[in-house]
Amino acid sequence: MSVQTQRDGRAGRILLDRPRALNSLTHAMLLDVRAALDAWACDDAVATVVLTGAGDRGLCAGADIRAMHDDAKRGGAGYRAFFRDEYRLNELISRYPKPYVAVMDGITMGGGVGLSAHGSVRVVTERSAVAMPETRIGLVPDVGGSHLLAHAPGELGTHLALTAAPMTAGDALVCGFADHYVPSSALPALTAALAERPAAEVLAAFAEPAPASDLAAEREWIDACYAADTVEEIVERLLSSGVPEAKEAAEQIAAKSPTMLKVTLAALRRARTETSLARTLEQEYRVSCAALAHHDLVEGIRAQVVDKDRDPRWSPATLPEVTEADVERFFAPPADGDLRLG
Protein backbone atom coordinates (compact mmCIF):
# COMPACT_ATOMS: atom_id res chain seq x y z
CA MET A 1 0.00 0.00 0.00
CA SER A 2 1.39 3.40 -1.01
CA VAL A 3 -0.96 5.23 1.38
CA GLN A 4 -1.11 4.23 5.03
CA THR A 5 -4.13 5.37 7.03
CA GLN A 6 -4.82 4.82 10.70
CA ARG A 7 -6.61 6.19 13.72
CA ASP A 8 -4.34 7.57 16.44
CA GLY A 9 -6.26 8.90 19.39
CA ARG A 10 -8.25 11.92 18.17
CA ALA A 11 -6.34 12.03 14.87
CA GLY A 12 -6.79 10.30 11.55
CA ARG A 13 -3.37 9.88 10.00
CA ILE A 14 -2.59 9.75 6.27
CA LEU A 15 0.96 8.74 5.34
CA LEU A 16 2.06 8.94 1.70
CA ASP A 17 4.33 5.92 1.54
CA ARG A 18 6.48 5.81 -1.59
CA PRO A 19 9.70 7.21 -0.12
CA ARG A 20 11.98 5.90 -2.88
CA ALA A 21 9.84 7.85 -5.39
CA LEU A 22 9.64 10.89 -3.09
CA ASN A 23 6.02 9.87 -2.42
CA SER A 24 4.99 10.77 -5.98
CA LEU A 25 1.30 10.20 -6.57
CA THR A 26 -0.42 7.39 -8.41
CA HIS A 27 -4.12 7.31 -9.22
CA ALA A 28 -4.64 4.61 -6.59
CA MET A 29 -3.06 6.83 -3.96
CA LEU A 30 -5.50 9.64 -4.72
CA LEU A 31 -8.43 7.26 -4.35
CA ASP A 32 -7.07 5.93 -1.04
CA VAL A 33 -6.70 9.46 0.39
CA ARG A 34 -10.21 10.32 -0.78
CA ALA A 35 -11.68 7.18 0.83
CA ALA A 36 -10.05 8.00 4.17
CA LEU A 37 -11.27 11.60 4.13
CA ASP A 38 -14.81 10.55 3.21
CA ALA A 39 -14.89 8.03 6.06
CA TRP A 40 -13.46 10.37 8.69
CA ALA A 41 -15.66 13.32 7.78
CA CYS A 42 -18.57 11.50 9.46
CA ASP A 43 -16.58 9.84 12.25
CA ASP A 44 -17.04 11.72 15.51
CA ALA A 45 -14.00 9.96 16.97
CA VAL A 46 -11.72 11.73 14.46
CA ALA A 47 -11.20 15.37 15.40
CA THR A 48 -8.21 16.15 13.17
CA VAL A 49 -6.66 14.77 9.99
CA VAL A 50 -2.84 14.78 9.70
CA LEU A 51 -1.05 14.37 6.35
CA THR A 52 2.65 13.42 6.28
CA GLY A 53 5.10 11.79 3.89
CA ALA A 54 7.30 8.75 4.46
CA GLY A 55 11.07 9.11 4.47
CA ASP A 56 13.17 12.15 5.25
CA ARG A 57 13.18 13.90 1.86
CA GLY A 58 9.74 15.41 1.62
CA LEU A 59 5.97 15.21 1.73
CA CYS A 60 5.39 14.61 -1.99
CA ALA A 61 7.16 15.52 -5.23
CA GLY A 62 3.93 15.53 -7.25
CA ALA A 63 2.54 13.16 -9.84
CA ASP A 64 4.50 10.28 -11.32
CA ILE A 65 5.56 12.19 -14.41
CA ARG A 66 7.21 9.25 -16.15
CA ALA A 67 3.85 7.49 -16.03
CA MET A 68 2.25 10.71 -17.30
CA HIS A 69 4.72 10.77 -20.20
CA ASP A 70 3.87 7.20 -21.19
CA ASP A 71 0.13 7.78 -20.89
CA ALA A 72 0.27 10.99 -22.93
CA LYS A 73 2.01 9.11 -25.72
CA ARG A 74 -0.92 6.65 -25.69
CA GLY A 75 -3.52 9.44 -25.91
CA GLY A 76 -3.76 10.62 -22.29
CA ALA A 77 -7.00 8.90 -21.22
CA GLY A 78 -5.46 7.60 -18.00
CA TYR A 79 -4.23 10.99 -16.85
CA ARG A 80 -7.43 12.76 -17.81
CA ALA A 81 -9.09 10.44 -15.29
CA PHE A 82 -6.22 11.04 -12.85
CA PHE A 83 -6.70 14.81 -13.10
CA ARG A 84 -10.47 14.51 -12.56
CA ASP A 85 -10.03 12.61 -9.31
CA GLU A 86 -7.06 14.69 -8.19
CA TYR A 87 -8.80 18.03 -8.64
CA ARG A 88 -11.94 16.73 -6.94
CA LEU A 89 -9.76 15.71 -4.01
CA ASN A 90 -8.04 19.12 -3.94
CA GLU A 91 -11.44 20.81 -3.78
CA LEU A 92 -12.64 18.49 -1.00
CA ILE A 93 -9.54 19.29 1.05
CA SER A 94 -10.26 23.02 0.70
CA ARG A 95 -13.65 22.63 2.38
CA TYR A 96 -12.99 19.67 4.68
CA PRO A 97 -15.18 19.96 7.78
CA LYS A 98 -12.41 19.14 10.26
CA PRO A 99 -8.92 20.54 10.81
CA TYR A 100 -6.69 19.18 8.06
CA VAL A 101 -3.06 19.47 9.13
CA ALA A 102 -0.59 19.11 6.26
CA VAL A 103 3.05 18.74 7.29
CA MET A 104 4.95 20.22 4.33
CA ASP A 105 8.39 19.13 5.50
CA GLY A 106 11.03 18.81 2.78
CA ILE A 107 10.08 18.69 -0.90
CA THR A 108 6.43 19.57 -1.48
CA MET A 109 5.78 20.14 -5.14
CA GLY A 110 3.02 19.94 -7.73
CA GLY A 111 0.49 17.35 -6.63
CA GLY A 112 2.00 17.49 -3.14
CA VAL A 113 0.97 21.15 -2.99
CA GLY A 114 -2.53 20.13 -4.08
CA LEU A 115 -2.81 17.72 -1.14
CA SER A 116 -1.45 20.20 1.39
CA ALA A 117 -1.77 23.88 0.54
CA HIS A 118 -5.58 23.86 0.32
CA GLY A 119 -5.87 22.46 3.84
CA SER A 120 -6.91 24.49 6.86
CA VAL A 121 -3.63 24.04 8.77
CA ARG A 122 -0.42 24.09 6.68
CA VAL A 123 2.92 23.58 8.41
CA VAL A 124 6.35 24.29 6.94
CA THR A 125 9.82 23.69 8.37
CA GLU A 126 13.36 24.88 7.71
CA ARG A 127 13.66 21.96 5.26
CA SER A 128 10.60 22.88 3.20
CA ALA A 129 11.01 23.41 -0.54
CA VAL A 130 7.57 24.27 -1.93
CA ALA A 131 7.09 24.68 -5.66
CA MET A 132 4.85 24.48 -8.67
CA PRO A 133 7.53 23.31 -11.15
CA GLU A 134 5.24 22.36 -14.03
CA THR A 135 6.69 24.72 -16.64
CA ARG A 136 9.96 22.77 -16.42
CA ILE A 137 8.28 19.80 -18.08
CA GLY A 138 5.97 21.46 -20.59
CA LEU A 139 2.96 21.63 -18.30
CA VAL A 140 1.09 24.43 -16.49
CA PRO A 141 0.58 24.91 -12.71
CA ASP A 142 -2.45 22.86 -11.67
CA VAL A 143 -3.96 21.21 -8.54
CA GLY A 144 -5.27 24.65 -7.62
CA GLY A 145 -1.75 26.02 -7.87
CA SER A 146 -2.80 28.69 -10.34
CA HIS A 147 -5.35 29.88 -7.77
CA LEU A 148 -2.72 30.15 -5.02
CA LEU A 149 -0.14 31.76 -7.29
CA ALA A 150 -2.62 34.24 -8.73
CA HIS A 151 -3.57 35.45 -5.26
CA ALA A 152 -0.02 35.72 -3.88
CA PRO A 153 1.09 39.28 -3.04
CA GLY A 154 1.89 41.47 -6.03
CA GLU A 155 3.50 39.51 -8.86
CA LEU A 156 5.29 36.95 -6.70
CA GLY A 157 3.05 34.19 -8.02
CA THR A 158 3.73 35.10 -11.63
CA HIS A 159 7.47 34.94 -10.96
CA LEU A 160 7.16 31.56 -9.26
CA ALA A 161 4.95 30.13 -12.01
CA LEU A 162 7.08 31.20 -14.96
CA THR A 163 10.46 30.34 -13.42
CA ALA A 164 9.28 27.24 -11.49
CA ALA A 165 11.42 28.50 -8.60
CA PRO A 166 11.04 26.80 -5.18
CA MET A 167 9.86 28.61 -2.08
CA THR A 168 11.52 28.46 1.31
CA ALA A 169 9.37 28.23 4.43
CA GLY A 170 9.38 32.02 4.73
CA ASP A 171 8.42 32.42 1.08
CA ALA A 172 5.57 29.90 1.39
CA LEU A 173 4.16 31.77 4.37
CA VAL A 174 4.32 35.12 2.58
CA CYS A 175 2.78 33.72 -0.61
CA GLY A 176 -0.18 32.08 1.11
CA PHE A 177 0.91 28.46 0.69
CA ALA A 178 1.43 27.87 4.43
CA ASP A 179 0.24 29.06 7.83
CA HIS A 180 2.72 27.97 10.50
CA TYR A 181 6.45 27.44 10.90
CA VAL A 182 7.55 24.54 13.10
CA PRO A 183 11.18 23.30 13.28
CA SER A 184 11.53 19.80 11.85
CA SER A 185 12.96 18.57 15.16
CA ALA A 186 9.60 19.32 16.79
CA LEU A 187 7.46 17.39 14.28
CA PRO A 188 7.32 14.10 16.23
CA ALA A 189 6.07 15.94 19.30
CA LEU A 190 3.67 17.99 17.20
CA THR A 191 2.05 14.98 15.56
CA ALA A 192 1.87 13.15 18.88
CA ALA A 193 0.11 16.12 20.46
CA LEU A 194 -2.44 16.24 17.62
CA ALA A 195 -3.61 12.80 18.69
CA GLU A 196 -4.57 14.18 22.08
CA ARG A 197 -5.46 17.87 21.78
CA PRO A 198 -7.30 20.24 19.42
CA ALA A 199 -5.27 21.34 16.40
CA ALA A 200 -5.53 25.07 17.17
CA GLU A 201 -4.21 24.52 20.68
CA VAL A 202 -1.34 22.35 19.47
CA LEU A 203 -0.23 24.77 16.75
CA ALA A 204 -0.36 27.68 19.17
CA ALA A 205 2.08 25.77 21.37
CA PHE A 206 4.47 24.57 18.66
CA ALA A 207 4.55 27.32 16.00
CA GLU A 208 7.55 29.64 16.03
CA PRO A 209 8.14 33.04 14.38
CA ALA A 210 8.38 32.74 10.64
CA PRO A 211 11.82 33.00 9.04
CA ALA A 212 12.41 35.89 6.68
CA SER A 213 11.35 35.56 3.05
CA ASP A 214 14.08 36.28 0.52
CA LEU A 215 11.41 36.42 -2.18
CA ALA A 216 9.48 39.17 -0.40
CA ALA A 217 12.66 41.24 -0.30
CA GLU A 218 12.71 41.16 -4.12
CA ARG A 219 9.19 42.56 -4.51
CA GLU A 220 10.28 45.84 -6.11
CA TRP A 221 11.76 44.38 -9.30
CA ILE A 222 9.43 41.37 -9.37
CA ASP A 223 6.30 43.52 -9.26
CA ALA A 224 7.65 45.95 -11.84
CA CYS A 225 8.76 43.30 -14.32
CA TYR A 226 5.97 40.74 -14.05
CA ALA A 227 3.12 43.25 -14.24
CA ALA A 228 3.58 43.28 -18.02
CA ASP A 229 0.79 41.88 -20.18
CA THR A 230 2.85 39.41 -22.21
CA VAL A 231 5.65 36.95 -21.54
CA GLU A 232 7.78 38.70 -24.14
CA GLU A 233 7.47 42.01 -22.31
CA ILE A 234 8.13 40.36 -18.94
CA VAL A 235 11.39 38.91 -20.28
CA GLU A 236 12.34 42.28 -21.80
CA ARG A 237 11.74 44.07 -18.50
CA LEU A 238 13.74 41.45 -16.59
CA LEU A 239 16.71 41.77 -18.93
CA SER A 240 16.69 45.57 -18.93
CA SER A 241 16.14 46.02 -15.18
CA GLY A 242 19.83 45.95 -14.29
CA VAL A 243 19.11 43.55 -11.42
CA PRO A 244 21.26 40.38 -11.50
CA GLU A 245 18.47 38.28 -10.02
CA ALA A 246 16.08 39.53 -12.71
CA LYS A 247 18.53 38.54 -15.46
CA GLU A 248 18.79 35.09 -13.89
CA ALA A 249 14.97 34.82 -13.85
CA ALA A 250 14.85 35.73 -17.54
CA GLU A 251 17.35 32.96 -18.30
CA GLN A 252 15.24 30.47 -16.35
CA ILE A 253 12.12 31.49 -18.26
CA ALA A 254 13.93 31.20 -21.59
CA ALA A 255 14.52 27.48 -20.96
CA LYS A 256 10.79 26.75 -20.64
CA SER A 257 8.21 25.83 -23.26
CA PRO A 258 7.10 29.04 -25.03
CA THR A 259 3.57 27.69 -25.39
CA MET A 260 3.24 26.70 -21.75
CA LEU A 261 4.68 30.01 -20.58
CA LYS A 262 1.99 31.90 -22.45
CA VAL A 263 -0.75 29.53 -21.30
CA THR A 264 0.51 29.82 -17.71
CA LEU A 265 0.38 33.61 -17.78
CA ALA A 266 -3.13 33.55 -19.28
CA ALA A 267 -4.27 31.03 -16.65
CA LEU A 268 -2.93 33.14 -13.79
CA ARG A 269 -4.50 36.33 -15.07
CA ARG A 270 -7.88 34.59 -15.37
CA ALA A 271 -7.52 32.98 -11.93
CA ARG A 272 -6.73 36.36 -10.37
CA THR A 273 -10.27 37.55 -11.05
CA GLU A 274 -11.83 34.31 -9.73
CA THR A 275 -12.30 33.88 -5.98
CA SER A 276 -13.54 30.29 -6.20
CA LEU A 277 -10.97 27.49 -6.06
CA ALA A 278 -13.53 25.16 -7.64
CA ARG A 279 -13.92 27.35 -10.72
CA THR A 280 -10.15 27.64 -11.10
CA LEU A 281 -9.76 23.86 -10.82
CA GLU A 282 -12.33 23.51 -13.60
CA GLN A 283 -10.20 25.84 -15.73
CA GLU A 284 -7.08 23.87 -14.86
CA TYR A 285 -8.76 20.66 -15.99
CA ARG A 286 -9.30 22.13 -19.45
CA VAL A 287 -5.70 23.31 -19.62
CA SER A 288 -4.23 20.04 -18.33
CA CYS A 289 -6.24 17.91 -20.75
CA ALA A 290 -5.05 20.09 -23.62
CA ALA A 291 -1.47 19.81 -22.38
CA LEU A 292 -1.66 16.02 -22.47
CA ALA A 293 -2.27 16.26 -26.21
CA HIS A 294 0.46 18.84 -26.84
CA HIS A 295 3.95 17.99 -28.07
CA ASP A 296 5.74 19.93 -25.33
CA LEU A 297 4.54 17.84 -22.39
CA VAL A 298 5.95 14.57 -23.73
CA GLU A 299 9.08 16.36 -24.92
CA GLY A 300 9.61 18.18 -21.62
CA ILE A 301 9.36 15.02 -19.54
CA ARG A 302 11.56 13.18 -22.01
CA ALA A 303 14.29 15.78 -21.65
CA GLN A 304 14.08 16.08 -17.85
CA VAL A 305 13.26 12.55 -16.70
CA VAL A 306 13.43 9.93 -19.44
CA ASP A 307 16.58 10.72 -21.46
CA LYS A 308 17.80 13.37 -19.01
CA ASP A 309 19.61 15.33 -21.71
CA ARG A 310 18.11 18.60 -20.38
CA ASP A 311 17.70 19.74 -24.00
CA PRO A 312 13.98 19.90 -24.80
CA ARG A 313 13.01 20.73 -28.39
CA TRP A 314 9.91 22.85 -27.89
CA SER A 315 7.36 23.32 -30.67
CA PRO A 316 6.89 26.19 -31.40
CA ALA A 317 10.43 27.03 -30.36
CA THR A 318 10.03 30.77 -29.68
CA LEU A 319 7.56 33.03 -27.92
CA PRO A 320 6.59 35.09 -31.01
CA GLU A 321 5.57 31.89 -32.79
CA VAL A 322 2.88 31.15 -30.17
CA THR A 323 -0.32 32.91 -31.22
CA GLU A 324 -3.31 34.00 -29.17
CA ALA A 325 -5.32 31.29 -30.91
CA ASP A 326 -2.77 28.69 -29.79
CA VAL A 327 -3.26 29.83 -26.19
CA GLU A 328 -7.04 29.97 -26.39
CA ARG A 329 -7.21 26.33 -27.46
CA PHE A 330 -6.01 25.33 -24.00
CA PHE A 331 -9.10 26.89 -22.42
CA ALA A 332 -11.63 25.07 -24.60
CA PRO A 333 -13.74 22.22 -23.13
CA PRO A 334 -12.06 18.83 -23.56
CA ALA A 335 -13.69 16.34 -25.92
CA ASP A 336 -14.78 14.05 -23.10
CA GLY A 337 -16.44 16.83 -21.10
CA ASP A 338 -15.64 19.45 -18.49
CA LEU A 339 -14.90 18.86 -14.85
CA ARG A 340 -17.75 20.22 -12.72
CA LEU A 341 -17.23 20.94 -9.03
CA GLY A 342 -19.53 22.21 -6.31
- Low-pLDDT stretches are none
Q: Estimate the global geometry from the Cα principal axes.
A: globular
Q: Could you estimate the helical fraction of the residues in percent?
A: 40-55%
Average pLDDT figure: 97
How many domain units?
1
Describe this structure in words.
It is a single chain. 47% of the residues lie in helices and 11% in strands. The protein is of the alpha/beta class and 342 residues long. It contains 16 helices and nine strands. It has helices spanning 27-41, 65-73, 77-94, 111-116, 145-150, 156-163, 169-174, 187-194, 199-206, 219-226, 231-240, 244-254, 258-272, 277-292, 295-306, 324-328; strands at 3-8, 11-16, 48-53, 58-60, 100-104, 107-109, 121-124, 129-131, 180-181. The strands form two sheets. Strands 1-2-3-5-7-9 form a six-stranded mixed beta sheet, with helices on both faces. It has a three-stranded parallel beta sheet with strand order 4-6-8. A hairpin with a 2-residue loop joins strand 1 (3-8) and strand 2 (11-16). It is globular, with a radius of gyration of 19 Å. The chain has one domain: 2-enoyl-CoA Hydratase, Chain A, domain 1. 50% of the residues are buried.
Descriptive keywords:
16 helices; ClpP/crotonase-like_dom_sf; six-stranded mixed beta sheet; globular; alpha/beta; 342 residues; 2-enoyl-CoA Hydratase, Chain A, domain 1; single chain; three-stranded parallel beta sheet
Blueprint of the fold:
Blueprint: E1 3-8, E2 11-16, H1 27-41, E3 48-53, E4 58-60, H2 65-73, H3 77-94, E5 100-104, E6 107-109, H4 111-116, E7 121-124, E8 129-131, H5 145-150, H6 156-163, H7 169-174, E9 180-181, H8 187-194, H9 199-206, H10 219-226, H11 231-240, H12 244-254, H13 258-272, H14 277-292, H15 295-306, H16 324-328
Parallel strand pairs: 2-3, 3-5, 4-6, 5-7, 6-8, 7-9
Antiparallel strand pairs: 1-2
Helix pairs in contact: 1-3, 2-15, 3-14, 6-13, 10-11, 11-12, 13-14
